[in-house]
Amino acid sequence: MALIEAKNLTKIYGKGETAVTALNGVNLAVSTGEFVAVMGPSGCGKSTLLHLLGGLDRPTQGEVLVEGQAISGLNDDALTRLRRRKMGFVFQFFNLIPVLNAIENVALPLVLDGQPAREVRPKAVAWLQKVGLSDRLENRPDQLSGGQQQRVAVARALVAEPALILADEPTGNLDTRASDEIAALLRQVANEWGRAVVMVTHDPRIAAYADRIIFLKDGVIVDETRLSDGAGHSVLTVKEKAEAL
User: Fold this and answer.
1) pLDDT digits (tens, 9 = 90+) for 180-234
2) Chain segment 128-177, per-residue pLDDT in tens
3) Higher pLDDT, residue 237 or 179
4) pTM of the model as a whole
5) Higher pLDDT, 85 or 240
6) Cβ 136 vs Cβ 144: under 8 Å
7) What is the maximal distance between C-alpha atoms in the chain?
């Protein structure tokens, strides 16, 4: 059984003559430990798909299933609990709290979930160490580089031990070196820590770290490429397909 599955997923914004179809009958299944990248031109529905998978928006038609459970029928409280415990989110602009240090930022999802304070800090520290920030535990965001801030964001996404990581242009605000480091870290999230990762990106080089690349155009999946090792060797092939959309 797939960890997360989209079935005939459709999202229409507006009504009548002003209606815009952002997604049109998308079917997608992602397994535990699989790293999937989503590519396509601007406005093709990439972020809409990610938001629907994460329960941040509700579909017009179709369904999202997480571990076999349909999520569209959940009320807001149940959906919030599902997101906190089953999903981690990584965004382009980090979304860290400026006045909190790295430990406090990473611990925030656990605090919001009501976990005891004595358990929260050790978990946050452990994940910061795993993402290579052992020497930056007490630093605030303005004392960290962009790449380090995104590592904090990845640790925050992982601290609740979710099964799924959803990343929306996670390297879009980083330089080339930091982008490669974050892409490699997401590869590690899938390979070593067994999470499913779904990443939206416009960069063929970053997409080539994935196991599989889904190409969207006008709200429809138009192509799919499976990479043999996710090591970046197929960048040219990915770039050619992306440019052909």
Assistant:
1) 999 999 999 999 999 999 999 999 999 999 999 999 999 999 999 888 654 444 6
2) 999 999 999 999 999 999 999 999 999 999 999 999 999 999 999 999 99
3) 179
4) 0.91
5) 85
6) yes
7) 56
Name the residue range of residue 207's domain. 4-244
The total number of residues written for the chain in this structure: 245
- The CA-atom distances, in angstroms, between 97 and each of 119, 130, 149, 169, 184 are 21, 21, 11, 19, 25
Report how many domains make up the chain: 1
Structure tokens, 68: 């076999």
Q: What is the chain written as a DSSP string?
A: --SEEEEEEEEEES-GGG-EEEEEEEEEEE-TT-EEEEE-STTSSHHHHHHHHTTSS--SEEEEEETTEE-TTS-HHHHHHHHHHHEEEEETT----TTS-HHHHHHHHHHHTT--HHHHHHHHHHHHHHTT-TT-TT--GGGS-HHHHHHHHHHHHHTT--SEEEEESTTTTS-HHHHHHHHHHHHHHHHTT--EEEEE-S-HHHHTTSSEEEEEETTEEEEEEE-SS-SSTTHHHHHHHHHH-
- Of 66, 95, 233, the residue nearest 164 (C-alpha): 66
Task: Please report the sign of the dihedral spanned by the C-alpha atoms of residue 203, residue 204, residue 208, residue 210.
Answer: positive
Q: What is the domain-level CATH number for residue 20?
A: 3.40.50.300
Q: Where residue 16 falls among pLDDT bands split at 50, 70, 90?
A: confident
**Counting Cβ atoms within 10 Å, is residue 240 exposed (0-12), middle (13-18) or buried (19+)?**
exposed
